[in-house]
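Researcher: Sequence recovery benchmark, item below. Answer with residues only.
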C-alpha cells in the first residue's frame, strides 16, 4: 500500500508476531473555540507508537457526536478535509493495537453507542478480564454487539447503566464497579469529556492543561507536549474526571486498590520523552542500563542498542563501564503492521524488514547488544545472526528487564505462556537458542531501583497478578507447573448479575 498524503512512502507491511506489541493510546480534549479534531490528530500522531492497527477521532459539537475511524496509521486515515469537517469543542481519539478482538473496522475505536437520544464515543486502552461474562449478560438483556472487543463491552455497559440511571456519570461509576482488568478510558458526549482509570492504575492516563478553559487527557505526556499543553497530574486510580462548561469535576468513583502501574511501560511501551512521576522514560531506561552493567558487565569493544527502546539502556550500560556506545543496527521507520496480510516472501525476510546491521561499526568487534525484552526468542536470534553476518566477532546480549515468563492479561499481547521462551528455557538455553556469546537479564531489584518508587505490576516477570484472573479467561494459557498468584479478589459487583448491581447500590445507600 502506498500513501503519500503526508509525505510518507508507505510500502511495506510486516506482521511481527515475535515481539511484544504496544497496546493502545487514548487522547481526549475539551477546548471550546479551538480546532479539537486537528489537535486530537496531533495528539494521536504523538501516540502512534502505541498502536498502528487503526485510529479514530470522535468530536462532540454540542448537538451530537461525529466519528471518523479506519484501519491504518493516523497519517493514512485523516485528510485535511476530514478534520475540517469535524468542528466541535470536545473530542476523543484512539490508536489501536488489537489485544482483544479482530483487526476490523468495527473493532477500531472510538466506539459509538446510542443511549436514548444521547450518543457517546469511548476510547479504551487496556484489557477487561471479565468482558466475556459481561458480554453474555448484556446480550441476554437485549444489547446488540458489532465487534468482539472488550472495549465495546465497556461502552455498552456504560450505556446500559446510563439508561437505567439517566446519568452518564452514574453509568460510568456503575460500569467501573463491574469491570475488572487494566484500563484507561476517555469518553465524549456532545457537550462533555470524561476520563477514568482502573482502580489499580495499571494503564496510564495523564491530565494536562492547554489554557484556562482547555484541558487534555492522554496516555502519555508526549501527546500533551505536541500541542503545547502542560502536564497537571495523573488521573488517579479509580477516579472519574468530567470536563464541560461547568469546569473540571473529579470524583473517586471506585475505591483505589493497591497501586500496580504497568512497569513494562517504562521498559518498552512509553516514548522516551514522556515523563512519569517526574522522571523521563529516557532517564529510567538509561538507569536500567547502568544497573545492568553493574550486574552483568562484559569486556567488549562496542555497546549498541536495538532501536528504539534498547538505545537509552545501551547508552547507560556503556557509560557505566566506560565503553564506546554507537549505532550497530539501523531501523527502517516506515515499516508498520497494517491490515494487509504480509506475503510469504515478506515473512521470510522477517526482522530484516525493520532492522539492518551497520557493518562499518560492528565488523571485527566484540559487541554488547542491549534490548528491552526477549519474548519468543526468534527476533533476538535473527538480530544476533545479522550482526555476526555483518562481521561482529562476538555478540553478548543484555536485556534491561527480567525474563518475561508469564502472560499479561491487562492489555499486552503475551497471553499464552507457551509462547514465552523464558517460561520453557533457562537463560543458558535461551542464549544457545539465539546464538549469542553470553546473555544476561536485569534483576527485578535492579529494575525497581531504576524507576520512581511507586506500586508496580510486575506479573509478566513474577506471576503475581494484581487483578484476579478469572479461570475461564486464563484457561489453557499457563504451562503445567506454573501457578499464578492472584494478589486481589474481584470486586463484589463484578461477581453479580448486571441488573442486580443497581439494586444492591440502592440497598447500600
Ligand atoms: S503483566 Fe507485565 S505487561 Fe502486563 S500490565 Fe503487568 S507489568 Fe505490564
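Model:
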Amino acid at each position: 500500500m502506498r500513501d503519500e498524503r503526508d509525505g510518507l512512502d508507505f510500502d511495506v507491511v510486516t506482521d511481527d508476531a515475535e515481539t511484544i506489541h504496544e497496546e493502545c493510546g487514548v487522547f481526549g480534549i475539551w477546548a471550546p473555540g479551538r480546532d479539537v479534531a486537528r489537535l486530537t490528530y496531533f495528539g494521536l500522531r504523538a501516540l502512534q507508537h502505541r498502536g498502528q492497527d487503526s485510529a479514530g477521532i470522535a468530536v462532540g459539537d454540542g448537538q451530537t457526536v461525529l466519528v471518523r475511524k479506519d484501519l491504518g496509521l493516523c497519517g493514512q486515515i485523516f485528510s485535511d478535509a476530514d478534520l475540517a469537517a469535524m468542528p466541535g469543542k470536545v473530542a476523543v481519539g484512539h490508536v489501536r493495537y488489537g489485544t482483544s478482538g479482530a483487526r476490523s473496522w468495527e473493532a477500531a475505536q472510538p466506539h459509538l453507542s446510542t443511549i436514548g437520544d444521547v450518543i457517546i464515543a469511548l476510547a479504551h486502552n487496556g484489557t477487561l478480564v471479565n468482558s466475556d461474562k459481561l458480554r453474555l449478560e448484556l446480550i441476554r438483556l437485549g444489547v446488540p454487539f458489532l465487534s468482539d472487543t472488550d472495549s465495546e463491552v465497556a461502552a455498552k455497559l456504560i450505556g446500559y447503566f446510563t439508561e437505567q440511571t439517566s446519568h452518564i456519570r452514574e453509568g460510568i461509576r456503575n460500569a467501573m464497579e463491574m469491570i475488572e482488568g487494566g484500563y484507561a478510558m476517555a469518553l465524549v458526549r456532545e457537550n462533555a469529556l470524561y476520563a477514568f482509570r482502573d482502580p489499580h492504575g495499571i494503564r496510564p492516563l495523564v491530565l494536562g492543561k492547554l489554557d484556562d478553559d482547555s484541558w487534555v487527557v492522554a496516555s502519555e505526556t508526549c501527546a500533551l507536549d505536541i500541542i503545547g499543553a502542560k502536564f497537571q497530574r495523573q488521573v488517579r486510580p479509580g477516579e472519574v474526571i468530567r470536563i464541560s462548561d461547568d469546569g473540571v469535576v473529579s470524583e473517586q468513583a471506585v475505591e483505589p486498590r493497591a497501586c500496580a502501574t504497568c512497569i513494562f511501560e517504562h521498559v518498552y511501551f512509553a516514548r522516551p520523552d514522556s515523563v512519569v512521576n517526574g522522571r523521563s522514560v529516557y532517564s529510567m531506561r538509561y538507569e536500567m542500563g547502568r544497573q545492568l552493567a553493574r550486574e552483568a558487565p562484559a569486556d567488549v569493544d562496542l555497546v549498541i542498542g536495538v532501536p528504539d527502546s534498547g538505545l537509552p539502556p545501551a547508552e547507560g550500560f556503556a557509560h557505566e563501564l566506560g565503553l564506546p556506545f554507537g549505532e550497530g543496527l539501523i531501523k527502517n521507520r516506515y515499516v508498520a503492521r497494517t491490515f494487509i496480510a504480509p506475503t510469504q516472501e515478506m515473512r521470510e525476510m522477517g526482522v530484516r524488514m525493520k532492522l539492518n546491521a551497520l557493518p562499518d561499526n560492528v565488523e571485527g568487534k566484540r559487541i554488547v547488544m542491549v534490548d528491552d525484552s526477549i519474548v519468543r526468542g526468534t527476533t533476538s536470534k535473527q538480530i544476533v545472526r545479522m550482526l555476526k553476518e555483518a562481521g561482529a566477532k562476538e555478540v553478548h546480549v543484555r536485556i534491561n528487564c527480567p525474563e518475561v515468563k508469564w502472560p499479561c492479561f491487562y492489555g499486552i499481547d503475551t497471553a499464552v505462556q507457551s509462547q514465552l521462551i523464558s517460561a520453557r528455557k533457562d537463560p543458558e538455553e535461551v542464549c544457545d537458542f539465539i546464538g549469542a556469546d553470553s546473555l544476561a537479564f536485569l534483576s527485578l531489584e535492579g529494575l525497581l531501583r531504576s524507576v520512581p518508587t511507586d506500586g508496580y505490576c510486575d506479573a509478566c516477570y513474577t506471576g503475581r497478578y494484581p487483578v484476579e484472573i478469572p479461570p475461564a479467561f486464563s484457561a489453557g494459557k499457563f504451562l503445567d507447573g506454573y501457578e499464578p498468584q492472584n494478589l486481589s479478589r474481584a470486586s463484589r459487583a463484578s461477581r453479580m448479575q448486571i441488573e442486580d448491581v443497581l439494586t444492591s447500590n440502592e440497598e447500600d445507600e
